[in-house]
Amino acid sequence: MSNPKYCDLRPCAKTTDEVNTDFPKEEELIAYRDEFLAPYTVGARKGIFVPRELVNKLAKTVALFDNRDFTIGAYVTNIIISHLVANRDVINELTDRGSKTVTL
Q1: pLDDT in tens, 38-82
Q2: Which pLDDT score, from 0 to 100, does residue 33 have?
Q3: Where along the chain do its domains lie?
Q4: Rounded to whole angstroms, how far apart are CA atoms 32 and 52?
Q5: Class of residue 96 by CB neighbours under 10 A (exposed 0-12, middle 13-18, buried 19+)
Q6: What local confidence, expressed as pLDDT, does residue 100 receive?
Q7: How far is CA 12 from each of CA 15, 18, 37, 58, rounded to the nearest angstrom?
Q8: How far apart are CA 64 and CA 68, in angstroms?
Q9: What are φ and ψ of residue 27, in 5° steps?
Q10: Which of 5, 40, 82, 88 is deepest in the core (most CB within 10 A)?
Q11: What is the C-alpha separation between 29 and 32, in angstroms, rounded?
């Protein structure tokens, strides 16, 4: 089923085609909420540069949850941590390969 709703990321870069999606099951909603929508204390901060369109989408998404403790920084932090954990082996291998080509 094609669901051209809120999360059209074509303006944000790599996603150029429409993505076919189905409505998620309740278990998927709960798992997503538990992993990504939890408040997180960001602590010391460092700015990064991302497309304005992406920041606008993230701000709207975070505002929908009506939780003062849940911020764009917390959402992005949760997403990045999940990505790093899920891709740990690949990242470590690429890091090892990269460091072998550098001569000090």
Answers
A1: 877 777 888 888 899 999 999 998 998 888 888 888 889 889 999
A2: 83
A3: 10-100
A4: 24
A5: exposed
A6: 66
A7: 7, 13, 21, 12
A8: 11
A9: -65, -35
A10: 40
A11: 5
- Placement of tokens 């975070």 in the chain: 62
Instruction: Give the integer Cα–Cα distance in Å for 73 and 41.
Output: 9
User: How is 2-68 classified by DSSP, letter by letter?
Assistant: B---S---GGGSS--SPPB--PPPHHHHHHHHHHHSS-----S-------HHHHHHHHHHHHHT--T
Element (H, E) at 86: helix 72-86
pLDDT above 90: percentage of residues in the chain: 14
pTM of the model: 0.66
Residue 71 CA to residue 42 CA, distance in Å, equals 9
Residues 6+ apart with CB under 8 A from 4: 18
